[in-house]
Design goal:
Blueprint lengths: L3 E7 L31 H4 L4 H8 L8 H11 L3 H15 L1 E2 L1 H6 L2 E7 L2 H22 L1 E2 L1 H14 L4 E8 L15 E8 L2 E5 L1 H5 E4 L4 E4 L10 H4 L3 E3 L11 H6 L2 E2 L1 H4 L4 E4 L4 E4 L5 E6 L6 E5 L2 E3 L6 E3 L2 E6 L5 E7 L2 E10 L1
Parallel strand pairs: 2-4, 13-20
Antiparallel strand pairs: 1-3, 5-6, 5-10, 6-7, 8-9, 11-20, 12-14, 14-18, 15-16, 15-19, 17-18, 19-20
Helix pairs in contact: 2-4, 3-7, 4-7, 6-7
Length: 346
């Protein structure tokens, strides 16, 4: 076949922005919810990987190559699931997010090929090079994380793919239909079933206006159930969605923070992220499984410290927020950012 030009797009990728607590520094994370319960405990999201984590914690903080790290993992673990977890744990603990590289944006690496085999070979070589650089520098953006994860999986005989798509990380993303990919993650095949992994988001978050990366290991993004993963990840190729949802449904969802992903609280109302407000009525929020705690809110970055008083109604809890104008609304539960909405006039 004739010589063909190929491209690999190194996406800058999105790392979650996150609030530490209820404060004036308001930079949000991402996630979302449907009218189903978000209650999935940590034990339900992942099995007990304490022994795997304990072994990996004893590994060196650096390796000379992905193959060397894979050798250690192959020696210490026997099952594909344990190996996949060990890879996730080591990368998320030891690779920092490269904020400067993210600010510069992605880049496209071009190459030529004359056959399908040559194309695959050159793509593999580029991925190997990126994985080595990410490991050597101990920092990277999402494509570096996901590529390093895949290459180590290759060395441990785990089938793994890199998935590109759209990540929802800010309230401004609410209502935006997924378009040009801005993030990458992985899927691995374990015992014949595909499992979703995001080592980038497992590594930590970006805080505040300074866009400072803070390492905060979070295993909620390892083998996350598809219906939860969908809340903030929409793949460019729908075959990696694993749940019957549309781009429009993804766009309409609110923005959920990590605290919400781990909570048993079920949001009933508002059902969508775009909320219509009126000058005559307060904003109504209805929850199930709310068993007490303090609820506060912030509007457009301004904190309203007085707790919102709950009203019990059968098995639901109702909150009335005295908000009658458009803006970005963030709810806090027990001092932690919980969920974000975009308020608009009718």
């Amino acid at each position: 076949m004739p010589l063909i030009r190929g491209n690999i797009h190194f996406f800058p990728g999105n790392l979650k922005n996150k609030n530490r607590s209820y404060s004036s520094e308001m930079f949000s994370f991402r996630s979302t919810v449907f009218l189903f319960s978000l209650f999935i405990s940590c034990n339900a999201l992942t099995q007990d990987y304490q022994q795997v984590e304990k072994v990996v914690a004893g590994y060196p903080g650096s390796f000379s190559s992905p193959g060397k790290l894979a050798e250690r993992i192959n020696h210490d673990f026997s099952t594909p699931e344990e190996k996949a977890r060990a890879i996730f744990a080591w990368i998320s603990h030891h690779i920092a997010y490269d904020v400067k590289a993210f600010a510069k944006g992605g880049k496209v690496v071009s190459f030529t090929y004359s056959s399908a085999e040559e194309k695959i070979s050159k793509e593999k070589a580029l991925q190997e090079d990126l994985a080595r650089r990410t490991l050597r520098r101990k920092k990277g953006i999402c494509y570096g994380y996901s590529t390093l994860y895949k290459i180590i999986c290759d060395y441990t005989d785990i089938e793994c793919v890199i998935i590109s798509g759209t990540a929802k990380i800010l309230e401004s993303d609410i209502g935006r239909i997924p378009g040009t990919p801005n993030h990458t993650w992985n899927a691995v095949k374990i015992n014949g079933k595909w499992k979703l992994v995001d080592a980038t988001w497992g590594a930590g978050s970006i805080y505040g206006k300074s866009q400072r990366f803070v390492a905060e290991y979070d295993d909620i993004y390892f083998f996350t159930p598809p219906e939860i993963f969908f809340l903030n990840h929409y793949p460019a190729d729908k075959q990696w969605l694993f749940v019957k949802m549309t781009a429009k449904a993804f766009a309409s969802l609110p923005l959920y923070y990590p605290a919400a992903l781990r909570s048993e609280i079920k949001l009933i109302k508002p059902a969508e992220g775009m909320v219509h407000v009126s000058k005559k009525k307060p904003v109504q929020v209805i929850m199930k499984n709310f068993h007490g705690g303090t609820v506060n809110f912030a509007l457009n970055g301004r904190n309203y410290p007085d707790p919102v008083k709950p009203q019990r109604r059968r098995d639901e809890t109702v909150f009335y927020l005295n908000i009658r104008r458009p803006g970005i609304l963030t709810l806090f539960v027990d001092g932690k950012a919980f969920i974000g909405f975009k308020l608009v006039y009718r």
